[in-house]
Amino acid sequence: MGAKDSTPFYQPPDKVPLPPANAEVLTTCCDYCIVGCGFKVYRWPANAPGGGPKKNQNALKRDYPLKPLEGGWVGPNQYTQATYKGKLYNLVVVADPDAKVVNVGGTHSIRGGCIAQKVYNPQKPTQDRLRQPMVRVNDILMPVTWDFALDIAAEVSKHVIREHGEDAWAMKYYSYQFFENTYALTRLALKSINTPAIAEHDHPSKVDATPGWTDIGYDMFAPAYEDYALADCILVSGTDPYETKSNLWEYWFLKGIRENNTKLIFVNPRKTTGVAYAEKHGGLYLDIMPGSDTPLYMAMARIIVENGWEDQEFIKNWVNNFWETDSGFGRGTRNTPWQWRTTWGMFQVNGYEDWKKWLLSQEESKPEVAAKIAGIDPKLIYQAAEMMAKPKPNGQRVKTTICIEKGCYWSNNYLNTVSIGNLGIILGCGGRPGQAIGRLGGHQRGGSNGGPYPGMKSPYKVPGRRRLELDVDRWLESGHVRFAYVVGTTWIQAMAGSSALQDAFKRYTKLNPHQVRTLDKQAIIDTLKKRVDSGGLVVVNQEIYLRDPIGKQYADIVLPAATWGEEDFVRANGERRLRLYSKFCDAPGEALPDWKIVSMFAQKMGFEGYDWKDSNDVFEECCRFSRGSRKDYNAIRVIARRKGMRAHDFLRTYGTTGLQAPLLIDGDRIVETKRLHDYNRKDIPDTGPEGATIHNKRLLAFNTHTGKLNMLKSPWKYWSDFYVFMQPRGEELWVTNGRINEIWESGFDDYARRPYTQQRWPENFLEIHPEDAKARGIESGDWVAIESDRVPVQKELNLGVKDGEMWFDGLMKRGHITLASGQFTAVAIVTPAIKKGVAFSNFLNENAPANTITPRVPDPITNNYRFKIAHGTVRKIGVSQYKHRFDQMTFARRDIV
Amino acid sequence: MATCKNDGGFQGGCMTRRAFLFRGGAAAVSTVVLPILPGFAGKALAAQVARYPRMKIGRLSALVTDKPVVFSYPDKSPSAQSILVKLGVPAGGGIGPAEDVVAFNGQCTHMGAPMSGNYQPEHKALGACAFHQTSFDLRRHGIVIAGHATESLPQVLLELKGDDIYAVGLLGLIYGRHDNLAAKA
After folding, report:
1. What's B164's domain CATH number?
2. ipTM for the complex shown
C-alpha cells in the first residue's frame, strides 16, 4: 500500500491563541505521575482577544517565537476552553517555564504536556465525563438526583453493616487522588465503619509496597531528586525513568550524566531509550529474566564483600547487631510489621558478620549461578559490582544510589526488596547526597489516614503468630462482600487474575435474581437488601468516567466525581514536595469532589463530623494526622493559622515550588526536609521541633526502633516453588507487562481521550523478540492472541498453621489454588529490544488487560501481587490495519539514541 | 540551555546552521493540484495550505536515498529549518514514483532542539533529540516513536511538478511559534 492511500489521523492546528498580558495565572501540578511537575494555567474570557507575540503582549512574558529550551511553548495540545463559574474561558496549561524545582525550566512529558486536554470540554473527547448520579434500573443506568442515589447507598450500607457485619462493607479506592479525598474516604471506611475490607487501587490489601525496606529501615521515598544528579553511579532496577518518571530523567538524570558523568546500571528485561542512552554514556545493561533479581543482587553483594569494597564505616555506624535487632521497643517486638513477618527466624541475622556468612553460604549468591538464573553473562555482574563499589584510584568511595520500581518489587516482592536493600547497606546508601536509596514511584503521593486499620479483624492468619491484612479480592470472590464502594479504580482489570475476579463480580451482581425494576426509591432499597441477604453484592462506583466493566456492567449506582482543576487540592510528589493544585474550571454537570460525596453519604448513614464546608476544611482537619509521617505537613495548618490564613491559601503562596516535607516549625518559620535519613543534617531547630510537629526518627536516622538498619536474609527457597510453577512451559513465553512514556499513571483518563496518544497507541501492543516472533510466524503489525490456561488464583479463606502451608506448594497441596484461564489481544511489535523468551505488553489496557493472565497469588510474606510474573502462549490471529498504514502507530524501535 | 559538552549528538547552539533556501518558488504560479489526502477534510486543508508560500526546495533527480537535504520553510528564521529526504521506502505523504520523498520541520516539538542532523537511516527516524531523546518516525507523518513531545514533527506538504519539488504547506505547528506564518526571519 502506498503513500497515496495514507491519511494523517487528524489535521493538527497550525496556530494557537496566546494568553493576553492580563490573563489570570494560577498554579497547579500535573495530575499524572509521581514526579508532579509544576504547571501554570492561564485563563481569559472566551470573547476577549488573545495576546500578541511580544513579551509585553502576552501573559507568558515571552517573545515569540521561542528559542530552543525556553519553555512555556503553547502548542495545540496546551490550549482548550472551559467554563469557570458558568462563564466560558480560554485556557492555556503549560509546564511552568519558571519552575525552580522538579521540572526546572518547564520541561514536561507527553502526558503532562497534553494535560490541558484533560479539562472537561463538550467539544472534545472529554465530553463523556460523568455529569449526573445514576441508578441501574432494568439494567440501564438512569440519571437521578444526588439524594435519590445516596439515600439508596446509605440505606443498603446500614443494612449490610447491621445484618452482615462491617467486614461485608468493602471499599476499594485510589490511594493518591489528593489528601482531602483520601482522608474523607478512609475516615468513613476506617474510623466510622471500621471495616478491615479495604484496599487501595494497586493491592489486594492495605499493605506496604516495599516491605523488605520497611524491615531494613529504609524509607521508600527518602531521596531528593537532586540525588540522581549527584551520584557517580545509579543502579536502576525494574524501570526506566526515561519512560516512566519523564522529568526526573529530563532534568535530574540527564544533569547527572552530562555534568557529573554519572554511570547508570539498568536491570530490566526490556531495553528502552533510557537504557540505550545510558549504555552510550558508559552505563551497563543487565537484561535479566523476569523474577530473577534476588540472586543477582546477592551475587553483586558477594563480589563486593569478597573484595572488601563494602562501606565499612557506614556498616559499623548504621547496622544493628543482634542485640539491637532483637531488642524490644515499646510494646514489644511482635508489634512491628517486621516481627510479624519474621517470627520463624526466617530472615533475621546476628549482625553484619552473620549476614555475610549467610550470604557466602548461599548457592544463589555465586555469580555464575545467579547469572544462569537471570539468563545473563556473569561478567555483567562483576562489572556492575565494580562500577558501584570498587574504590576510585584516589581511594574515594564511588557515590552509588539505588532506585527501584515495579519491575523489582512487583515480581518477588519481599526477597527483591530485601536483597537490593542489603546491597544498599553495604554500599552505604541512604542519607547522603548522591548516596541514596529509594523508589522512583508510580502515582503521586496523596494518601492520608482518616483512621487506623483494624488489623485484628482480619481473618487471614498464617503460620506463627502472623496475621495478614484482609485480601479484599479473595474476600469478595468468596462471597463475603455485600456492599462494595469503588472509588477511582477499575478494580477488576487493575488486579491480578482479573478474568476470575470479573466472574465473581458478575456472579454476585448481574446473575443474582434480585434486580431493580422500578424507580420507587423504597422498592429499590428493598430489592437491593434482598440481593445482599441472598449472598449477592451491591456496587457503588464513584468515577470521572464510566468504566467498563465495573461501572458500565456491575455498578448499581454510579456517582460522578469532580477532579483535578475542578477543586483546590493538595498532594505530594516523589520527593515529598507538597503543592496546591488550584481550581481553575467548573466540574461537569452535577459532578462533585469525592470528599463532598463522602460527606453527604456519611451524613445519610448517620455519622457525625462530616459537615465540611469546603476542601480547605477537610485539609485543615487532616493536617494533624500527617504528624510523624514521611509527609508531615501539619506545619502548614499551624503557621497559616498564626498568619490568619486558610491553609490552602498559605500553601498557594509557595506556587509550583511548594514545601518539601516532613515540615518542622522553628519559631514562625517552616523548616523543610530535602532528604530523609540525613544523619549529617545540621538545620534541625536547636530548640527541637515544637509541639505541632513530631521529631521523626527518619529525619536523622533510619526507620527502625534503634535508628539503625537491619540486615536480613533473602533465602531463594521462599520464592522458588512459585517461580518454578510460573516458568514458561512448552510453547509459552514469559509475558510481562509495564507502562510506557505515553501511557504512564495516566491511563485512567489520558490515554483514551487524547487524540495524539490514540494516534500513537490505538491498540494494546505486545513486544516480542525477532526469534520468538519468527518461530510463531509473527510480524510487526499482526494481531496476536496471548493466552494462559494455568493462571493460578488463590481461593477461599485460609488459615495456615504449620510452616510451609502458606507457601505456593503448600497452598497447591491443600487445594487453595485454582487454575483459571485468561487471554488478551494485542498488535505485535517485533523488536530485539525485548529479551528472547520474554514478551512485554501494556499493563492496563481496558479492552485487553494484561492482568487476565497474571497470577492472583499474593506474596505470602507481604500480600503484594506479583504482577510482572506471567506466562502465556502467543499466536498470530491475523493482520492489523496498522501493518500497512501510515496514519497511526509506529513499529520503529524505541531505543534509538 | 542544556549543556552539550558530553553529548555527541547535540546540534544546538554548538553548530553552524546551513539553511538552504530556494527562492522564487513562492512567486511561481502552479497548476498542480494540492496533494490529495483521502479521508482528510479537503476544504480545511486547502484553506490551511492557501495561507502558505509555495517554494521550490529541490529536484527529485538530485535526491539520494537516506541523504537528507536541509532547507528553510516557510521563512528563513532558525526554527524554519527543515529536511527533505528520500527514505527509499513508501511513507505517509510521500511524493515521487516510490512515494518515498518527505519533508519535515527539523525542530523537536518537545523543547525545540534542532534535529536536522539526527536522521537515522536504519530506522527512517529523526532523533533521538539531543535535549531529551524524543524520536520521530518519518514514514508515519513524523509521529513520536518514543519521548516527550506532544505533537508529531510538522510535516511539510510537498508537490512535484516535473522534477521540481515544491513546499506548499505545513501540517502542524512549528515548535516555539504560535502561528507558523507569524515568525519574522
Report:
1. 2.102.10.10
2. 0.95
